[in-house]
Design a protein that fits this description.
The protein is α/β, with parallel strands linked by helices. The chain folds into two domains: 12-125 and 138-161 and 379-415, NAD(P)-binding Rossmann-like Domain (Rossmann fold), CATH 3.40.50.720; 166-366, Dihydrodipicolinate Reductase, domain 2, CATH 3.30.360. It contains 15 helices and 20 strands. The chain has helices spanning 20-29, 45-59, 61-64, 77-87, 101-110, 140-143, 146-152, 166-177, 210-218, 259-267, 281-292, 314-321, 362-369, 373-391, 407-415; strands spanning 12-16, 37-42, 67-71, 91-94, 114-116, 155-157, 179-191, 194-195, 222-225, 229-232, 240-244, 249-255, 272-277, 301-305, 308-312, 332-333, 335-346, 351-361, 398-400, 428-432. A hairpin with a 4-residue loop joins β17 and β18. α1 (20-29) crosses α14, α4 (77-87) packs across α5 and α14 (373-391) crosses α15 (407-415). It is globular and about 60 Å long.
Length: 437
Amino acid sequence: MLRDKGYREGMRILLVGAGGVGDAIAKILARRTFWQLTVVTDYDASRADRTISWIRERHGDETAARFVADSIDASSADSVADVARRHGVTHVMNAVEPKFVPTVFRGALAAGADYLDMAMTLSQPHPNKPYELTNVKLGDEQFDADSVWRDAGRLALVGMGVEPGLSNVFARYAVDHLFSAVDELGTRDGANLVVVDDDGNEIFAPSFSIWTTIEECLNPPVIWEKGKGWFTTPPFSEPEVFDFPEGIGPVECVHVEHEEVLMMPRWLDAKRVTFKYGLGEEFIGVLRTLHQLHLDSVVPLTVRSAQGPVQVAPRDVVAAALPDPATLGPRMRGKTCAGLWATGKGLDGKPREVYLYHVSDNEWTMAEYECQCVVWQTALNPVVALELLAAGTWAGSGVCGPEVFDAQPYLDLMSRPEAEGGYGQHWGLDERTPATG
């Protein structure tokens, strides 16, 4: 069956990128019936073939027949548009590095398709006061194109991963259902994950793209406050110990540049919006060293080799030297938690503090999907959103974040058991004692 009753006819998805998150998206889609065709693409078409081969082995030929592999150049809007047109796709799902967002974004519009991503166009720090003032902010390039997308009658659902994405859904839910007035919407991300070598010793191996992690953690973090707007602060500022649920426990979190802070204030009423990430002392030390050595730079350097001068960006070298996060699952232990901490006045007018969250366990994601938990948790959320779009539950045009749409249907679909048509993913609401004084 290619679609369920109630779904729009013929959702055809172009999945751009078959790396860790793209591979997980395809594997999650394989269990759903709301779509007609998924075109799995990558610059290296063999990676798309690998993903579809796994689906065939796990789910059989009938399911695999709904997937097609193709090659794509995500750095070219023309290539994205050509592949989209060739397969008659209705939705472009961007699962590549943020540096390719502008071209995939434009290519989807040129092809007359709707668009989703999990990370937005990159920022550019202020040239003179990077730790005080913003300059080009995350997502500015996409939000500036809102009227163009509206005029075309097309929807770009941006920042629809886990963070941003699910955290934004939680924020909309908190504003609509839990608070009469919000003081702070603060995304808080933490984990107790470890990666081990063959002898069981812990090793340094980031569980997500180091390219993206460097971008997020070494750029000036952004904070938003009512009456002040967006402003920046030094990396790793205002450390706090946040207690994460389901056995993860206390983790030190610091300010990090992230899309939620640039998204939530556009649609939700709060006095302050922040993002803090639990990095750990070792990880912060490595990032600081990379910065001191200018190995975080994306500006190519000329490197002399036996074949002659070669242009290489230092950050690309760092990424190439570390293990592919998609391969770390068998060596990883523990859980990761993504969530939204909110404070303010409850519906009864009394002080309230809550943490809305979702936890992903690596042991479970490896057993069910052969994906490590960080990339799987990221991949889950755009698939839920695609299903709501297919049903017409979420609908619109222009450049929108998840905050634009009603959060209740999303959380209901996400938590409903798979046997009842949902995704079987519990989300938690942790009531906490509000701070006084």
